[in-house]
């Protein structure tokens, strides 16, 4: 057999392209690089951004636990450090944390923010601390701390003395207004610190990290303890009448004087003795005593109050005031000035005085066992009042007619005259 050769043909793969290998290698390298960069730039947990400070204390890069420890430690110590309060020439030390101005850790932590990136540090970043302020506690503490600075103002006041006997008598008399019995106290300014301002300034100082601050001292203007008496500076009229001691009518005189004493009548207003004293009853403190009723004496509650009415009438007469209503007794009573007297009866006979001056007038009364004095305080300037009583003109039953003339002089000029005419039907 002839020699035969068999030739086998094998399949050969095509040659690989070198570009694919390079691309794969580059991809792997980039991936490794990115992972490395991520490891370098991204933290496993959040931290405060770098270069962050609170109250000068560095807190950048701290995790939540660490930053809270820093806030509750060195940051709180710095924020709540003692502050010197300079008040005038005095200095006081306030400890903010102890008096209600405290670091708010939670709010400050929120303001700090957080990041997981490891970025290159930029410029310094200061975060202002947040505070909690207990207004009531701060106010009470500063009030106590600054008490030595505060000096209350002394208020202005008008004091009117119970009147003493200056004018009495049944004949011709004159009276000129004076400052007798009047004490005017203009008051005195005080000084003090506005606690609300001090609390605000303290909070601002704490936020700014200051250890000293100035607190302004204010002048405190005096108030007025007697505002209703503004303008009252004179005893403008007064009068005294007398009576025997210890009779029931004296109880009534004293009681009505007590009820009227201190009455203030504003400028332009009108005073009614009946309205002010009220009905004379046992419940009101009055007792039965003789009174003239229809020309006859009989006991009634409040008997004797006409003596107070007469005394008040004369005080107003010599003050030059406008006496709008009054009525003398029907029978003349020898203890009273003839014509210059005024009876009183509940709701039928009144004693009404109009304040025609520019200031209030004040009625003061003083009683003793044998006298009653009424003083009227107000302001009439350089006023003088003269009263002249004419001769008695006899009438039947021992009665008589009488005329009394009042002349009012203001600053040397006669400004008014008044004439009283009355006829008594007899004698008491």
From TrEMBL:
Name of this protein: VanW family protein
Organism the protein comes from: Paractinoplanes bogorensis
InterPro entries attached to this UniProt entry: Glycopeptide_resist_protein (IPR052913), Vancomycin_resist_VanW (IPR007391)
Pfam families: VanW
Record bears the keyword Cell membrane: no
Keyword field: Membrane, Transmembrane, Transmembrane helix
Transmembrane segment boundaries: 22-42
């Amino acid at each position: 057999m002839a020699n035969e050769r068999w030739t086998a043909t094998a399949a050969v793969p095509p040659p690989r392209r070198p570009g694919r290998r390079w691309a794969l290698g580059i991809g792997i390298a980039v991936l490794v690089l990115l992972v490395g960069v991520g490891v370098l730039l991204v933290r496993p947990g959040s931290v405060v951004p770098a270069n962050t400070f609170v109250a000068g204390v560095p807190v950048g890069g701290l995790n939540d636990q660490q930053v809270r420890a820093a806030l509750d430690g060195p940051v709180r110590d710095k924020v709540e450090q003692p502050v010197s309060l300079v008040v005038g020439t005095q200095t006081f030390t306030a400890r903010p944390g102890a008096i209600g101005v405290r670091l708010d850790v939670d709010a400050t932590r929120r303001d700090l923010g957080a990041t997981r990136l490891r970025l290159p540090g930029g410029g310094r970043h200061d975060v202002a601390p947040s505070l909690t302020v207990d207004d009531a506690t701060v106010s009470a503490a500063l009030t106590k701390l600054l008490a030595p600075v505060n000096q209350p103002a002394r208020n202005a006041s008008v004091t009117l003395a119970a009147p003493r006997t200056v004018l009495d008598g049944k004949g011709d008399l004159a009276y000129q207004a004076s400052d007798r019995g009047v004490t005017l106290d203009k008051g005195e300014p005080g000084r003090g610190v506005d606690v609300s301002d001090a609390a605000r300034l303290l909070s601002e100082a704490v936020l700014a990290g200051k250890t000293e601050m100035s607190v302004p001292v204010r002048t405190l203007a005096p108030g007025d303890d007697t505002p209703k008496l503004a303008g009252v500076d004179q005893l403008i009229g007064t009068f005294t009448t007398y009576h025997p001691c210890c009779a029931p009518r004296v109880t009534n005189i004293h009681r009505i004087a007590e009820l009227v004493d201190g009455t203030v009548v504003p400028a332009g207003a009108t005073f009614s003795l009946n309205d002010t004293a009220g009905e004379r009853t046992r419940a009101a403190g009055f007792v039965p005593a003789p009174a003239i009723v229809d020309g006859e004496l009989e006991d009634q509650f409040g008997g004797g109050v006409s003596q107070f009415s007469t005394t008040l009438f004369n005080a107003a007469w010599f003050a030059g005031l406008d006496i709008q209503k009054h009525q003398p007794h029907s029978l003349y009573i020898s203890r009273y000035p003839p014509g210059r007297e005024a009876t009183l009866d509940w709701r039928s006979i009144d004693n009404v005085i109009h304040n025609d001056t520019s200031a209030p007038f004040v009625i003061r009364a003083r009683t003793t066992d044998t006298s009653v004095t009424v003083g009227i305080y107000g302001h009439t300037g350089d006023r003088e009042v003269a009263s002249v009583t004419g001769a008695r003109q006899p009438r039947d039953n021992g009665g008589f007619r009488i005329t009394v003339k009042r002349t009012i002089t203001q600053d040397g000029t006669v400004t008014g005259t008044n004439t009283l005419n009355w006829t008594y039907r007899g004698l008491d």
